[in-house]
């Protein structure tokens, strides 16, 4: 550990008037003291907190805190009453809006609530440089582009070497590894081993947001879906109102081909984090997998519109259009995606898909052939060209790419197999049917 990354402990300032904060894991605090609350109460309070001062309708409590289970008006009232009793003494109140729902009313000082660092006061434990490095890496992971993920992983590894007990960095590394596997950037099993070791090194008594969801996601990439399901049960129990946990669980449900339930989880996540591009794109994916293409296209368009300039959102919208409503007008934008100095791999897969869907066979094959002979194209990235190949009628060649990924235990293969673009052929093809049995047990 380098000496300049750990700051001396600072003397705590005198406590200010009671302030409600909610940490990254969804745990509420009043002046730094944890608020005793059940998982359902924490979920309800987190929803009120994030939406304040707006009114939260009753159906949103049902979707987020009750997670789709039956919720009576009496049950919701009891939950709110228990929260109200604890908050009132601290100057906060929950107000009922007749016939609509509830809202959290700020305390009399009307100071904005501020996010609480979790699991402890990092500013007192670590230097500003260490905390800023971690925040920088979190922002990179939110971008979810291949180059950003690679940089985040490298920086997080360095941060862990320098400050071994910065536990949140270990969770961040595991999350980054999961995203990297999902992009086909990393060899799956070594990445899973490194990420699991990072999570296992965190003491059991340390509360870190995303810890259990990250483990569950890694189990999904290892195709250990039953274990992943159990891990997600614990993750949801620990963080019932955390949008990233709901997002990861929704992906698990997509692996299990439970797209309708995945869509409901993502809609709940969107209530908590309405401007997340990742949630919007995954919701669109779930909707099309559930057989709702028009709704999927609307969601993809809304996400792209809300995130102008974000290449991933733009590319995803183009891919959805090519699948749902192919049109010659998509060809120009698809080519422009590839025109940057360092166009990411996914830009070429989108171009190939657009060209294949609109009938530009020769151009599509040129793009696919060029990508597949490129030495930098990994076996995982190659699976993304199975979709345009299948659209062109080259199903044996598409199946061969998927089989190669299976032989290398490529973690991203499971989501590729569930791609709605493969639904028309995968189970009828002998190799495709075999892969569905081997990976999912179908």
TrEMBL record:
InterPro entries named among the record's database cross-references: OmpR/PhoB-type_DNA-bd, Sig_transdc_resp-reg_C-effctor, TPR-like_helical_dom_sf, WH-like_DNA-bd_sf
Span of the signal peptide: none
Keyword Acyltransferase applies: no
Keyword Membrane: no
Sorted UniProt keywords: DNA-binding
Pfam families the record matches: Trans_reg_C (PF00486)
Species assigned in the record: Roseateles agri
The name this protein goes by in its record: Winged helix-turn-helix domain-containing protein
Residue intervals of the OmpR/PhoB-type domain: 7-106
Record feature DNA-binding region, as residue ranges: 7-106
Top-level taxon of origin: Bacteria
């Amino acid at each position: 550990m380098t000496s300049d990354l750990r700051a001396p402990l600072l003397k705590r300032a005198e406590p200010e008037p009671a302030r409600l904060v909610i940490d990254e894991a969804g745990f509420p605090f009043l002046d730094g003291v944890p608020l005793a609350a059940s998982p359902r109460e924490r979920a309800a309070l987190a929803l009120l907190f994030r939406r304040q001062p707006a009114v939260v309708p009753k159906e949103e409590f049902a979707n987020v805190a009750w997670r789709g289970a039956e919720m009576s008006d009496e049950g919701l009232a009891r939950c709110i009453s228990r929260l109200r009793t604890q908050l009132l003494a601290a100057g906060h109140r929950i107000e009922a809006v007749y016939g609509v729902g509830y809202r959290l009313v700020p305390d009399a000082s009307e100071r904005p609530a501020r996010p609480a660092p979790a699991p402890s006061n990092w500013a007192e434990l670590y230097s500003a440089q260490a905390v800023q490095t971690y925040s920088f890496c979190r922002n990179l992971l939110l971008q979810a582009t291949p180059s950003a993920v690679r940089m985040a992983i490298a920086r997080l590894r360095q941060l862990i070497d320098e400050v071994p007990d910065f536990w949140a960095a270990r969770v961040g590394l595991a999350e980054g590894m999961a995203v990297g596997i999902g992009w086909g950037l990393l060899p799956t099993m070594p990445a899973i081993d490194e990420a699991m070791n990072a999570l296992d090194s965190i003491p059991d008594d340390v509360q870190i947001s995303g810890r259990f969801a990250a483990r569950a996601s890694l189990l999904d990439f290892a195709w250990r879906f039953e274990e992943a399901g159990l891990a997600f049960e614990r993750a949801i129990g620990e963080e019932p109102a955390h949008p990233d946990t709901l997002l990861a669980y929704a992906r698990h449900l997509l692996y299990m081909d439970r797209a309708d339930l995945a869509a409901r989880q993502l809609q709940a996540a969107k209530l908590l984090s309405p401007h997340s591009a990742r949630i919007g794109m995954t919701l669109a994916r779930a909707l099309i997998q559930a057989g709702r293409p028009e709704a999927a296209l609307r969601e993809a368009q809304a996400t792209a519109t809300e995130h102008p300039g974000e290449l991933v959102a733009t590319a995803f919208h183009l891919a959805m259009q090519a699948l749902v409503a192919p049109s010659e007008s998509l060809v120009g934008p698809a080519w422009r995606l590839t025109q940057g100095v360092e166009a990411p791999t996914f830009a070429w897969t989108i171009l190939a898909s657009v060209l294949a869907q609109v009938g530009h066979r020769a151009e599509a094959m040129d793009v696919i052939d060029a990508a597949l002979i490129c030495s930098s194209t990994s076996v995982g990235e190659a699976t993304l060209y199975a979709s345009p190949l299948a659209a062109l009628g080259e199903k044996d060649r598409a199946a061969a790419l998927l089989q190669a990924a299976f032989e290398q235990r490529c973690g991203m293969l499971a989501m590729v197999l569930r791609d709605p673009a493969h639904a028309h052929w995968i189970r009828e093809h002998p190799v495709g049917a075999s892969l569905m049995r081997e990976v999912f047990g179908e």
